[in-house]
């Protein structure tokens, strides 16, 4: 990584001084068009300069930043890493992974046999699951075929889309009213808008555990939009109860700069936490709530909290979906299905390679349901 030469002004320290004048050179944080000298608030500067070499005044990036950059490179969930003494080829490694997490299409009969006589409840991530990952997040459209099969699934099973996106954004993509939407990683949950609601009370579910954070999120969105606008390709997305900083279109040489900007902003907002998804940095309230909690909440809303006759099926591709996979393992009910073409650490039980395979799996599930209903 490029060294950032940080030189603190040699002015005599003044009691109660709240700012430092700093000269920065050779830093990915600043382009040549930026001035050389900056005034930093004392508290923020001291937090940013967590480690410094006193001999040559070179700033050493804090370990947390280095770890974050490594995580950004690895995609999500974290790829399996072979040890240095492991001579197994990539193909053998993938074969071993497939044995542990077999294709949900190949194991379809096993999955539906476990669901006989029980109620399947479907949970679907959006990006990378129903739609392919694309360069522009605003163009992550699903196909007509996928939309049709989601409608069919919703007519056969209680169905929810659980996503980091805002409900308004994902609903504009999916355009299906007969399902539950859990946006902002489950911090914003709405029920079906038609009369055929699966909710046992026949009332629309509305749950927003992070409502008090709305003004803070909106403020941070504006700050990050301003501070990241000089980084080509960076995009800040307001997902209502959380926000995303997309770096899919950012040159990898600028990832460190982007990460440092984001972390420097969050210093002033300790009630927000930084997590990393697939080509995205995500900022969320520090409340104990995630996609796994959203899954449990929806099962409870549907009347299946303590039922042994329910089979939750969650399909997702991202690190954030691991929270839901973990909940299913802890419940000892249902199946997590990871969408990935490469081996990754996961709490899922099965795998699918891409949205086209998700489409095929959902089609087969609808066909199985229709067939079993006809046999009853």
Short description:
Helices cover 34% and strands 20% of the residues. By secondary structure, the chain is α/β, with parallel strands linked by helices.
Global mean pLDDT: 81
Number of strands: 17
| Overall outline | globular
Sheet-strand content, in percent, reads 15-25%
Radius of gyration over C-alpha positions, nearest whole angstrom: 24 Å
Low-confidence stretches: 1-40, 48-62, 82-88, 196-202
In whole angstroms, the N-to-C terminal distance is 65 Å
Largest sheet, in brief, is: 8 strands, mixed
- Please provide the ordered H/E string of secondary-structure elements: EEEHEEHHHEHEHEEEHEEHEEHEHEEH
Lateral strand order in the biggest sheet: 10-9-8-7-6-15-16-17
List the helices and strands and how they pair.
Layout: E1 4-8, E2 19-25, E3 37-41, H1 42-48, E4 51-52, E5 58-60, H2 63-74, H3 90-100, H4 108-114, E6 119-124, H5 144-156, E7 159-162, H6 167-174, E8 180-183, E9 188-190, E10 206-207, H7 214-228, E11 235-238, E12 243-246, H8 255-266, E13 272-277, E14 280-285, H9 291-301, E15 310-316, H10 322-331, E16 335-339, E17 350-352, H11 355-375
Parallel strand pairs: 6-7, 6-15, 7-8, 15-16, 16-17
Antiparallel strand pairs: 1-2, 1-5, 2-3, 4-5, 8-9, 9-10, 11-12, 12-14, 13-14
Helix pairs in contact: 2-8, 5-11, 7-8, 9-10
Describe this structure in words.
The protein has eleven helices and 17 strands. By secondary structure, it is of the alpha/beta class. The longest helix has 21 residues, at 355-375. Strand 15, helix 10 (322-331) and strand 16 (335-339) form a beta-alpha-beta unit. The protein has helices spanning 42-48, 63-74, 90-100, 108-114, 144-156, 167-174, 214-228, 255-266, 291-301, 322-331, 355-375, and strands at 4-8, 19-25, 37-41, 51-52, 58-60, 119-124, 159-162, 180-183, 188-190, 206-207, 235-238, 243-246, 272-277, 280-285, 310-316, 335-339, 350-352. The strands form three sheets. Strands 10-9-8-7-6-15-16-17 form an eight-stranded mixed beta sheet, sandwiched between helices. Strands 3-2-1-5-4 form a five-stranded antiparallel beta sheet.
């Amino acid at each position: 990584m490029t060294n950032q030469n940080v030189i603190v002004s040699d002015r005599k320290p003044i009691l109660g001084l709240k700012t430092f004048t700093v000269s920065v050179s050779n830093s990915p944080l600043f382009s040549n068009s930026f001035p050389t000298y900056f005034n930093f608030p004392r508290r923020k500067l001291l937090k940013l300069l967590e480690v410094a070499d006193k001999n040559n005044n070179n700033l050493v990036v804090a370990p947390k930043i280095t770890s974050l950059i490594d995580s950004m490179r690895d995609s999500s969930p974290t790829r399996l890493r072979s040890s240095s003494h492991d001579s197994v080829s990539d193909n053998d490694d993938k074969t071993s992974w497939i044995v542990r997490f077999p294709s949900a299409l190949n194991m379809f009969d096993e999955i539906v046999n476990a669901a006989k006589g029980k109620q399947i409840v479907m949970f679907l991530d959006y990006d990378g699951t129903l739609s392919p990952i694309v360069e522009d997040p605003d163009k992550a459209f699903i196909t007509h075929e996928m939309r049709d099969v989601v409608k069919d699934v919703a007519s056969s099973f209680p169905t929810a889309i659980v996503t980091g996106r805002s409900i308004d954004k994902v609903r504009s993509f999916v355009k299906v009213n007969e399902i539950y939407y859990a946006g902002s990683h489950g911090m914003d949950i709405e029920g079906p808008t038609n009369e055929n609601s699966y909710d046992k009370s026949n009332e629309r579910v509305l749950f927003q555990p992070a409502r008090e954070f709305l003004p803070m999120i909106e403020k941070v969105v504006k700050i990050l939009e301003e501070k990241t606008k000089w980084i080509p390709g960076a995009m800040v997305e307001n997902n209502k109860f959380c926000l995303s900083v997309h770096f899919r279109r950012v040159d990898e040489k600028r990832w460190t700069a982007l990460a440092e900007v984001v972390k420097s902003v969050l210093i002033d907002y300790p009630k927000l936490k930084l997590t990393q998804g697939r080509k995205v940095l995500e900022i969320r309230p520090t409340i104990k709530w995630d996609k796994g909690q959203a899954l449990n909440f929806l099962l409870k809303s549907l009347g299946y909290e303590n039922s042994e006759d329910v089979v939750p099926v969650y399909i997702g591709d991202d690190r954030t979906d691991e929270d839901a996979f973990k909940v299913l393992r802890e419940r000892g009910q249902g199946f997590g299905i990871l969408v990935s073409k490469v081996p990754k650490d996961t709490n899922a039980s099965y795998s699918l390679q891409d949205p086209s395979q998700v489409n095929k799996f959902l089609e087969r599930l609808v066909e199985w349901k229709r067939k079993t209903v006809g046999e009853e």
